[in-house]
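The freezer alarm interrupted the setup, so I double-checked each line after restarting. Inputs confirmed:
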Amino acid sequence: MSPRLPLVDPPGPSPAANCTFGGGCGRPGEARPLPPGLAEKVRRHPCYSEEAHHHFARMHVAVAPACNIQCHYCNRRHDCANESRPGVVSERLTPDQALAKVRAVAAEVPELSVVGLAGPGDPLATPDRTFEVLDRIRRALPDLTLCLSTNGLALPDHLDRLAALEVGHVTVTVNMVDPAVGARIYPWVLWKGRKVAGPEASRILSERQLEGIAGLAARGILCKVNSVVIPGVNDAHLPEVSRRVQGLGVFVHNLMPLLSAPEHGTHYGLTGQRGPTEAELEAARRACELDARVMRHCRQCRSDAVGRLGEDRGAAFALARLPRETARDAAGVRAAHRVAVDRRRARIEADRRDALRLVADLDAGLRARVAVATRGDGLVNEHFGHAREFLVYEVGREGARLLGTRRVERTCQGGEGERDALAAVLRTLADCQAVLVAKVGRCPRGQLRAAGIEPVVVEAYRPIEAAALAWFARFAARAGAAHDAAPRSAAVA
Ligand code: CLF
Ligand code: SF4
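Predicted 3D structure, all chains:
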């Protein structure tokens, strides 16, 4: 197959200049490493470090039943869209149930490193319940990182309590810093016992959010800002949001697409407000990347999600399935996993450095896009037909940089619907030059080729970045050969 032309992308940061976390991805020896304290804080947090998300898991405990504001992308029957895809939480937990669930997951999932409170309402709208849960988890399982997500309205009132419980990471959803924009997102907030509507509601919310974010920084609590990208409402305004929050010490900005299917019953869903296209989301992320680190591996997970990002083992830990008592907390098993991950990281980094040498002399402007099927561990280790998502990387001589994740239906479904699912995957990956997989069947292999996407199995079970670079070196050689051959052919003709 002759290679398609390399991409000519809109001007944007290069992979090396913008490793997603500017070194905070935890790669040893990255060009702009984070200060040691900060690097250590994100090293095992799957949301704050793209690199860590290959190795570590989070779990959410859905203990927050209520909210103190109204967002047009949410209704009270669904998960908090700040942190979840809209969908009903299976179970709302009491503090006792939450602790039992955390103990059970911790005993069974060695890669668990973070427990988060992220809905279905706002955890700080019911602070007593939230702090009871945080306190009990902190005492029972001190090696786990505590994380919390909030709309920020009540945040300034609880900063000291968060710090006292060593909650290391707080996400604040900031969709605007201009009340005129906010009035199109938030119909009301509950403030000092009364419902405030219009731009005044957004003014109060914004002031409280910014005050809370500054307070987190002052206490050494790492802050991530989530923003929902709403085309025509706040998309053009988000770079201003990024600048403001970056100035307050926010660690990373996560731009998530609005999900607004009519069946969710939200205001936006019912009034036809659409979410962004892939291109619009990418444009918004690039615009914000000029001022802030931008997260690209968020999965908009449920408020009761369990597992690595991209997998959901929540059903296996439903209340009815929890043991009456969990005898062990398996802290030793988790510690052993961390040691094993450090060894794996060293091997991955060595492979990456070797692979970078293969492409060091290529044209700096040469770029390609590859999709990767992975089950975790930072490896190309998933069968094409089993993949429920692909990670899409932009590859250049500086390295491979994650652009985003794309969900798909499994194409290997035992017959029914496979043809439609494959067609959908081909559309989803249409902008990619190759797809790196552990294995791929003959039929999809042919169809991928026909669609101009090279199926690559020779890099199976290698670390993702090294595999992408090795493929890129071959791709560039073929592109160069095709380029050299073209004038000669023309001359002969
Ligand atoms: Fe949960 Fe959020 Fe903590 Fe992560 S999720 S409270 S920071 S532990 Fe992560 Fe899920 Fe995206 Fe949230 S992938 S929705 S960013
Ligand atoms: Fe829903 Fe979360 Fe918004 Fe509250 S903050 S209305 S729970 S999306």
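Quick read of the result. The chain has two domains: 34-321, 345-492.
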